[in-house]
Amino acid sequence: MFLAAAVPAVVYGWIAYTLPESPRFLVFQGKEDEARKVFDSIAPSGDTDRHIREIQDAIEEDKLSGQKGSLRGKTFGLQAVVWVGIILSVLQQFVGINVIFYYSTTLWKAVGFEEKDSLTISVATSITNILVTLVAIALVDRIGRRPILLAGSIGMAVSLGTMALAFSAAVGSGSEISLPGAWGPVALVAANIFVVSFGASWGPLVWVLLGEIFPSRIRARALGLAAAAQWVANFAITLSFPVMAAASLPLTYAMYALFAAASFFFVMFKVPETNGMSLEQAETLFVPKGSKRA
Q1: Is residue 165's pLDDT more than 80?
Q2: What is the band of 93 on the pLDDT scale with cuts at 50, 70, 90?
Q3: How far apart are CA 236 and CA 96, in angstroms?
Q4: How far apart are CA 157 and CA 131, in angstroms?
Q5: Distance in angstroms (rounded) separating the CA atoms of residues 201 and 139
Q6: Cβ neighbours of residue 201 closer than 8 Å, sequence gap 6 or more
Q7: Which domains does the chain show, CATH number per domain?
C-alpha cells in the first residue's frame, strides 16, 4: 500500500516540475517578457497585453496605498476576505466528508457488508469522489462557482439528514449496530449521494475560490492560512467522530447536515460569483463599497 502511494507522488512531482512560474510573480519581479511568454503558452487568447497591464496596475495601486501584504484587518484581527477563505475551508471539512473515508467500516457493516469488504468499498467510494470531480471541472466555467456550490450544499444537507434519520432506526450499540428493513439501502444510497454532492462541488471548488478571491499581495499567505485552517478542521472532525458516534450516531450526522445547510447560506450571502473574471477583477468583489482596494 505504501509503495502504491509512492506512484502518484512521483507523478505529481514530475508534473509540478513542468509547471510554469506564475505570471503575476514574474511581473512583480519586473520580468514582463517572461510573464508574457507564460500567458501566451497557457492562454493564447490575444489578451496578453491587457492581462499584463491589469497586473501592473494592481501592483502600482498596492504600492500607492502603502499595503505590504499584511493579513491584518478590522474583522477580528484579519481582513474580511481572509475570513471568507478560512470559513470556506472549515465548512468544507465540517460537513464530515473525511468521516466517510476514514470511518466507513461502521457505515458499511451497519448496512450489511462484511468487514473484510470495507477496504474495497472505501476504494470504490474514493474513485467515485474522483470521477465526480470531473463534473465540476466541466461545469465550473460554464455555469459558475456559486450555483455549483449551492447545489452541492443542498445535496449534502439532504443526504446527511437522510443518514441521520436512517441511523436513528439502528438497533444494537457501539460498533455492533445494524439498520433494519429498508434503512440499510437508504443509508448506503444517501452516503453515496453525499460523496457525489461533495466531489462535484465543495471538494474542488473551494480550492478554485481560494485561488481567486485573495488580493495578489496577500494571496500566498492567505491561501496558506486557509489551507492550514482546513487541516485543523479535518483533524478536529477526525478526532471527534469516534466519541460523538459512540454517544449518538444520528446526532453526529445531523450536526454534519447542519454545517452543510450553513454552507449554503454562507455562499448565498458572503461569496460573490467570480466566473469569467481575471484574478485582479475577482479580488475587487470583496472590497467594501466606498473603500479602496484592500
Answers
A1: yes
A2: very high
A3: 10
A4: 21
A5: 10
A6: 136, 148, 149, 151, 152, 153, 155
A7: 2-65 (no CATH), 72-286 (1.20.1250.20)
